[in-house]
Amino acid sequence: MTASTTPAGGWPVAIAGLGVRLPDRVVTNDDLAEVLDTSDEWIRTRTGIRQRHVAAPEEATSDLAAAAARDALADAGLEAAALAAIIVATTSPDHAVSATAPLVASALGVAVPAFDLNAACSGFVYALRVASGMVATGDGAVLVVGAETLTRVVDPEDRSVAVLFGDGAGAVVLVPDPDARLGPFVLGADGGGASMLWTASGGTRRPFDAEVLADRSHYLTMRGGDVYRNAVVRMTESAREVLELAELNVSDVDLLVGHQANVRILDAVAARLGLPAQLSQVSLDRHGNTSAASIPLALWDAREQGKLHDGDTVLLAAFGAGATWGACLLTWKER
Hints:
Blueprint: E1 2-3, E2 13-21, E3 25-28, H1 29-33, H2 40-47, E4 51-54, H3 61-76, E5 83-89, H4 101-108, E6 114-117, H5 123-139, E7 141-149, H6 159-162, E8 167-176, E9 182-189, E10 197-199, H7 210-215, E11 220-222, H8 224-245, E12 255-258, H9 263-273, H10 284-287, H11 294-304, E13 313-320, E14 324-331
Parallel strand pairs: 5-6, 5-7, 12-13
Antiparallel strand pairs: 1-9, 2-8, 3-4, 7-8, 9-14, 10-11, 13-14
């Protein structure tokens, strides 16, 4: 099912600050080739990935999230005390119970409403939808963080997934702005496709035990072909729906920032939309798939590369485990 509950023109909300945190350790394709039956050429030609960042043993998702949050607040020129709420989009929390967002709030030295949102790789778009509604209805500034340490949940011996994922965090501060727009949003989900990308065991359906450890079903698994086909279709469809709701054409889009899973997915979505390849941001070559963190990391890269300008119309689109998907538009504002 796909649904939109936002005004056609979007909410009067802007990104006031943007911050990221990438772990210091970089693992290249050649590094992986030393321990897996793979090669740099094999990984690059199938995914577009050249390297990824891997969290240090003492680093957890909340550490990356808090660091990105501090940078975003500094970029916005705001103190943490100005925040009305904190939302952390993640599928790799510090703990099964409780949420990661309160840990981030504590690290920032504030006691504000804080909660997690798990829509996997679509999580950042979902979180933007929740946060934009809060800001637009009077809550004030809201911090949205996409943060993951996915290298902790993939099987290091499975080359089909171990080469794909990286760790990192990206954060944005949303504020009211009558001259900006965030939205409309189109979100969707289909639980019938859950097993194409999931961790089968370790939850309440099949709790962790010796048998789970032996069959390694506590690690993330993926049916790559199914994910590719569904991602291309869902991201393209939701992007088209968002543009239709906003009464805009593809030619009005200044930059497409899609979930950074695979360069072939990004290329296919841009081609189906009729968008020139140079208007599709590609950052996964340096970060790998960072799930909920991938879109804010890509926004950061785009800004650093001079691809974002005041007043630009930016199209975000994502697909993730669940299955979940979503798209939205935002007006980029220079501050």
